[in-house]
Amino acid sequence: MLGRLGSALIFVAGSVVGGLALAFLIVALRPELIRKAAHATPVATPAAVPPALPAPARVTYAEAVERAAPAVVNIYTARLVTERLAPSLGELFGEYMPRYRQRIERSLGSGVIVDPEGHIVTNHHVIANADSIRVQLADGRVAEARIVGRDPDTDLAVLKIDLTPLPVAPVGRSDRLKVGDVVLAIGNPIGLSHTVTHGIVSAVGRQQLGIAPLEDFIQTDAPINFGNSGGALIDSSGALVGINTAIVAKNIGVDGIGFAIPVNMVRGVLGDIIAHGRVIRGWIGIVPEDVPEEQAQQLGLGQPAVLIGNLYVGSPAQHAGLQPGDLLLGIDGTPPHSAQDALGRIASRQPGTSVLLRGMRAGRVFEVRAQVGERPRSG
Q: Which CATH fold topology does 174-276 show?
């Protein structure tokens, strides 16, 4: 019995030793088998961490504001106002001598430095009737400004300050603006210096708003408030594209509608005022009116036209033979689309030149040539 047990133990031990020897030999000859087995065996690992999402692109107009804002100035005006006092109850029944008092009326607005010589563009209504004009720069410097010239027809004025060095606004092109373009308004609303508001171009070429005799406004929903008048409207690169001018009154329940004078118009006014002290425009003395659609249909007009509602006595138009009630069909071959368009086309002509006018009177088409004079100054 013991002998058989010993033989069994010897057999088991020999088998174990032989198996280990065989395994060692296999590992020595084919080590990749161990690696495959290791990979095939599931091993518990920590849960994988999902990769971090990329940060969203940052939308900012900081560089545009940094380019333009230093050239935007605050304008403070003051004027002496004389008021007549109402009579007291006792004076109503006795000898009454009118009494007066004087007070200082102050107002604020904005402006834009447009050249190193210190010329500043602002709105005419900002500095109208002012006895003194003070300008404050973004860097805190303050200077008295003098008026170089005014243009009430476009509600623009040019001031000058004597400081150096001066930041200058980069000037862009308003004729490249499209509806939907991003714009920023920079100004001094309610005395909050260099406030920036943001919006888009809502429309271009707005006319017949009753803001100025010659209109060609950029409409924007960038908030423009009291004190923004004369400030900068810039594009997303920081280039000046307009001068903020007016807002639609919020007391009638309208919000988000503001208007700016396009910089292409500003450029022409600025050049004339610096060179001549005034803007030189063409004029023939007509007072055009828009033709209502119903009237145009009755007259059978198949093209745009305006009605000559009135004429100035002794004007070039009267000398050329035009009469009130005539329809104006063309100016140098181009039909006027509105009364404002007709005035603008004639204003663009140089005084001393002539303009070919195509009209209609009592159903008969005619052509006359009128000499262009200089438009009388208003305001």
A: Thrombin, subunit H (2.40.10)
